[in-house]
Design goal:
By secondary structure, the chain is mainly alpha-helical. It is built from 1 helix and no strands. It is rod-shaped and about 40 Å long.
């Protein structure tokens, strides 16, 4: 019965939870990359 209750819970939460989580992961990855690049550029200038 858990396999029957899990899809009913995830079907309502998947369109609302997978998109923001993917966007948050992408945003975090991009921000980390930009921050690392900015630090390297600052270290290179000094």
């Amino acid at each position: 019965m858990t396999t029957a209750t899990l899809p009913s819970d995830t079907s309502a939460a998947a369109p609302a939870s997978t998109a923001p989580s993917f966007a948050a992961a992408l945003c975090g990855f991009l921000s980390t990359t930009v921050a690392t690049t900015a630090l390297l550029v600052l270290i290179g200038t000094f």
